[in-house]
Specification:
The protein is built from 25 helices and 22 strands. It is an alpha/beta fold.
């Protein structure tokens, strides 16, 4: 059969070689047919020989037409590719060892360049997804490039936007190099034993020796066992250097050393936990140093017993935090903070005191006491909480003391404060909050160069970034407790009258749920001092009374509670907006149910826009703050909240259940 093609200059590229077996088979069939015709003629069966000859001729003509069409298709594909890319560009791609694929509307490969044949791949007439699953992303998502693995090689696949063409590049060596570089990326960390210094200062040598042997020693052993460089910075703090691979390994184990230290501390009957901070993602060592020091401070302000992680270009991650550390507010620290805050006030022209929206007793009490402090230092003080939404019970109490409060304090609206505030000379005091988005002075915060924060909530990554001084103690019951301690350590006399003392007392009373939560000896000491300063407990109790409508509504919500995973009770109310105070009271009431570790109440909030809110409370054994942070909220270990403007109560409940499940898996 070679004579059939002798006059044809048939171009056979690499993509057509797979069809050559059919050409050879056809040639062999025709050869057998010729032998058969010769045999029939020899037997004088001329009619049969003629029929076979006709069939052979038809076969030859058909196969010749098929072969020419196939050849023209191959050449036409080459022409089409060259026309789209330009022949120089195509040759450059070939030279650069880049493969080319064409595909049809069903994402079936219609042509492949010789690159694939050379690498043992035969993709013509195959679905792209059957070759590499990742190619689906090229067509289902708005991306132009994907990376995928085939056998033991890694390929980068790029889609040409205006043609059904894919470029394929083997990037295995580059991929492996990047992976090795990532594994060897530098990670720096700080490990700190929470409350260690308290024991060092006040306990005997025998107990301290046990702590060093059973807690500090195992921590050093753990670091060295995992290949870290560890150096002691102080008696309770260590600096570690490791690579990303080691970091990923210990992270995959959820930093098991956290639980190990906590268990060992329990065996010793001491309140010591471990805080860890890790920073990476940059070659700038100064930036890494700043990051890791900010992170360890963040871990401490959130209660310790956790690992806080951040990449230079990423957000903060929290792992652990399943217990609250004991108070670390030594008398010395309180005295130093009091003097530092006093100096900041004295060095400022005017003092502006910001609270949070939906102002409660603790926020108002803290603002009033800071106003009294500033005025005692002969500074003009303004409380920026006028016309800011506040709790209904607080409003009743403010009305009760209206005249006396107007005589001693100046209230401004946020707009009035913005007009008056001097960003270089005036001081902004943020009390009972540290998050700009919920502040009554959220428009002033970005402008202010002098900011002091006094707060008792666990610090999150949305905390104000440029404060000159922060006094955040998450172990305190309330901001009012912190300020009572500060006022006892200032050089000047700060007059606190009955109205201010009563509202501050109410702040402690409400935030501790009548001394049932977040309460220790220092809480009672602060409450006792407020009574000495004139707090009226009778007025306080009267202020917390509910009208019948609120009372029945709260009981209705309690009856709607549904158990979840045995340890949780959840209320989802969809009928109308509810005061957020009632949501909190409902969650607190549900904690009285035996076996309930945490409770959540969800409803539309009675505020502008009626966002959906959730109030969370726990009995102290479960961290509701971590759950609320997954819903873009925050708060305390055992008291937290979140809200959403774009979810219904049912949708927020679904998100809450997913957050609980995610937290349970950690």
């Amino acid at each position: 059969m070679p004579f059939l093609f002798a006059g044809e200059n048939i171009y056979e590229d690499e993509s057509m070689k797979k069809f050559s077996k059919w050409r050879n088979l056809a040639a062999f069939t025709i050869f057998l047919s010729v032998l058969t015709i010769g045999f029939l003629i020899f037997k004088q069966q001329y009619l049969s020989a003629l029929v076979v000859a006709v069939l052979v001729v038809l076969l030859m003509v058909s196969f010749y037409g098929f072969w020419r069409s196939l050849h023209r298709y191959g050449l036409q594909t080459e022409v089409d590719i060259s026309r789209v890319l330009g022949r120089d560009a195509k040759e450059a791609l070939d030279f650069g060892n880049i493969g080319i694929l064409t595909y049809d509307s069903d994402y079936v490969v219609t042509w492949q360049s010789p690159y694939f044949e050379q690498n043992g791949m035969h993709l013509v007439n195959q679905k792209l997804a059957s070759w590499m699953e990742e190619t689906k992303t090229l067509f289902s998502d708005e991306v132009d490039t994907v990376t995928g693995k085939y056998e033991d090689r890694v390929y980068e696949i790029t889609r040409k936007a205006d043609a059904q063409i894919l470029y394929v590049k083997d990037i295995t060596e580059l991929y492996n190099l990047r992976a090795a570089n990532n594994r060897n990326e530098i990670v720096v960390g700080i490990l700190e034993l929470d409350n260690y210094r308290e024991y060092q200062n006040y306990e005997g040598e025998e107990l301290l020796a046990k702590i060093n042997m059973h807690l500090r020693g195992p921590l050093v052993v753990w670091a060295k066992k995992n290949g870290m460089l560890i150096k002691k910075l102080s008696s309770d703090r260590f600096f570690v250097v490791l690579n990303k691979q080691i970091f990923d390994d210990i992270k995959a184990k959820n930093f098991s050393i956290l639980q190990e230290i906590k268990d060992r501390a329990t065996d010793l009957d001491v309140s010591i936990t471990l805080s860890m901070a890790f920073a990476y993602g940059t070659d700038d060592f100064v930036e890494l140093d700043d990051m890791v020091n900010q992170l360890i401070e963040l871990a401490q302000s959130r209660g310790g017993d956790q690992a806080v992680i951040r990449s230079a270009n990423g957000t903060v991650q929290y792992i652990g935090g399943n217990s609250e550390i004991s108070s670390t507010r030594s008398k010395v620290r309180v005295r130093v903070m009091a003097r530092t805050i006093e100096e900041a006030i004295l060095q400022s022209n005017e003092i502006y005191i910001a609270g949070h929206i939906m102002t409660d007793f603790d926020c108002m009490g803290a603002a009033l006491s800071m106003s009294s402090w500033a005025q005692a230092l002969n500074k003009k003080a303004y409380i920026v909480l006028r016309d800011v939404a506040r709790d209904a019970q607080l409003q009743d109490t403010m009305d009760h003391y209206r005249e006396s409060l107007r005589e001693r304090h100046h209230f401004l609206t946020p707009d009035q404060a913005l007009e008056r505030f001097n960003k270089d000379k005036d001081l902004l005091l943020m009390v009972d909050h540290g998050i700009p988005s919920i502040s009554s002075c959220k428009e002033i915060i970005p402008l202010a160069n002098r900011i002091v924060v006094i707060d008792h909530h666990r610090r999150g990554d949305s905390f104000v970034k440029h404060a000159m001084l922060t006094y955040v103690e998450s172990t305190a019951s309330s901001a009012c407790e912190l300020i009572v301690e500060l006022l006892q350590n200032v050089s000047s006399h700060v007059p606190i009258f009955q109205s201010e003392a009563t509202i501050m007392y109410l702040g402690i009373l409400v935030d501790t749920n009548r001394f049932q939560m977040h309460t220790d000896a220092r809480t009672f000491e602060a409450a006792g001092m407020l009574c000495v300063w004139g707090a009226n407990s009778t007025v306080a109790e009267r202020s917390l009374r509910e009208d019948f409508t609120r009372f029945t509504l709260r009981n209705t919500l309690v009856q709607l509670a549904k158990p979840y995973k045995e340890d949780f009770l959840i209320v989802c109310y969809e009928d109308g907006p509810i005061d957020k105070t009632i949501l909190a009271q409902t969650s607190e009431a549900l904690l009285k149910v035996k076996g309930c570790k945490a409770s959540f109440t969800i409803a539309r909030a009675d505020k502008d826009g009626f966002p959906t809110a959730v109030s969370a409370r726990s009995d102290g054994t479960y961290n509701v703050q971590k759950v609320m942070e997954k819903l873009q909220g925050g708060g305390h270990f055992s008291a937290a909240a979140a809200e959403s403007s774009n979810m219904t109560p049912k949708e927020l409940k679904k998100a809450l259940l997913a957050a609980i499940d995610q937290e349970e898996m950690v």
